[in-house]
Design a protein that fits this description.
It contains 10 helices and no strands. With 223 residues, it is mainly α. It is globular.
């Protein structure tokens, strides 16, 4: 895997995509989760249930949604044709995979940050506000430290989920190969069981290393 350019590229593609999805999910999920935890408005429970709806969908269904949006006969292509433009398709490349992984991962981040924000110590925030701290200062000095363990744990889980996602990649990864599809091809199409096993071990080691680092930095130093 380390000497063959195709397998190494597949692993690097998977790591890069998983990192990008993890960072984007943490940013969006934290913003939405904290907002939902701190604001009360009509329809809040309905909105939260809609945002977490993708949790009930398998990866293949998520991929199908992206095809309906950005496939050759998708909404974006039809709109482009209706306005006399070129039929735009993005479902089967990097952008399609990124959007699918993001949509699949967001509910986990939103639910996690909403629960963490509800459990935050509001007295620290009130004390900072009474001392004249701005919203940016409160976010930097109060929210970030309070939510740091949640961010590490949630980020590790999101990364691991993205690294091993198969159903979504199987539906969309025709122009951008990731390691789960490489393993599937070697095992099913070429009967190369030894290489498939080696790639699986490599995938597991990379994912384990990230989870271990997150656990190490997120651990309570007093224990």
């Amino acid at each position: 895997m380390l000497t063959d350019g195709r397998y190494l590229a597949s692993m690097l593609n998977t790591v890069a995509l998983s990192l990008a999805v993890t960072l984007a999910t943490l940013v969006l999920g934290s913003a939405v989760g904290i907002y939902l935890a701190r604001r009360a408005f009509p329809g809040k429970r309905l909105l939260l249930s809609l945002l977490t709806l993708p949790l009930s969908f398998p990866g293949v269904i998520i991929g199908f949604f992206v095809i309906l949006l950005g496939g050759r006969q998708g909404l974006v292509a039809d709109l482009g044709a209706a306005f006399g433009l070129e039929r735009i398709t993005f479902a089967y490349g990097l952008l399609g995979l990124f959007l699918a992984y993001l949509y699949f991962s967001l509910p986990r981040a939103i639910a996690t940050y909403a629960a963490a924000a509800e459990a935050m110590n509001l007295q620290l925030e009130e004390a900072a506000r009474s001392l004249g701290a701005s919203r940016l200062r409160i976010a930097r000095d109060v929210w970030l430290p309070e939510l740091a363990p949640t961010t590490l744990a949630c980020g590790a889980i999101l990364f691991a989920t993205s690294m091993g996602a198969f159903g979504t990649a199987f539906t969309l990864a025709s122009k951008f190969e990731v390691i789960p599809i490489t393993i599937y091809n070697e095992f099913t199409n070429y009967a190369n069981f030894a290489l498939a096993a080696s790639l699986s071990i490599a995938l597991g080691l990379v994912t384990w290393a990230v989870l271990f680092v997150a656990r190490h930095f997120g651990a309570d130093p007093t224990r």
